[in-house]
Amino acid sequence: MSVNKPFIIACIPAYNEEATIAKVIIQAQKYADKVIVCDDGSSDYTGEIAERLSAEVIRHERNLGKGAALRSLFKKAKELKAGIIVTLDADNIVTKLSNF
Q1: Which partner for 77 in 81, 82, 90, 100 could form a disulfide, CB atoms 3.0-4.6 Å apart?
Q2: Do the beta carbons of residue 66 and residue 13 sit within 8 Å?
């Protein structure tokens, strides 16, 4: 029996995250088949860093907000026929949930 591995795409909305985007992309590349970053109108080198690390970059001319960035990322992931889409924060902050 052959089991097909799903095509995993990591989607990262980013706005002025040049200090942290490289680490997030490098970590995502360990687990995802493709990494896509939406540079949401950044005025720094966020998009250029992402491109240097071989992430696909979608660029917004101006900052449209996280919702718009996610919509652009999901649209692209759908075009690429993603089996699984994972979203990651570009600021590399992990929120730990405590007991609730």
Answers
A1: 82
A2: yes
DSSP count for the chain of H helices, then E strands: 3, 4
Amino acid at 59: R
What is d(CA 21, CA 89) in angstroms, rounded to the nearest whole number? 9
> What distance in Å separates the CA atoms of residue 93 and residue 3, rounded to the nearest whole number?
34
* Rounded Cα–Cα distance for residues 19 and 31 (Å): 22
Query: What are the tens digits of pLDDT across the range 21-46?
Result: 999 999 999 999 999 999 999 999 99
Are 86 and 24 in contact, with CB atoms under 8 Å apart?
no
Q: Amino acid identity, residue 50?
A: A
DSSP state of 4: P
Q: Do 84 and 6 contact (CB within 8 A), yes or no? A: yes
Task: Please answer whether residues 82 and 7 qualify as being in contact, where contact means their C-beta atoms are separated by less than 8 angstroms.
Answer: yes
Question: Mean pLDDT of all residues in the chain?
Answer: 92
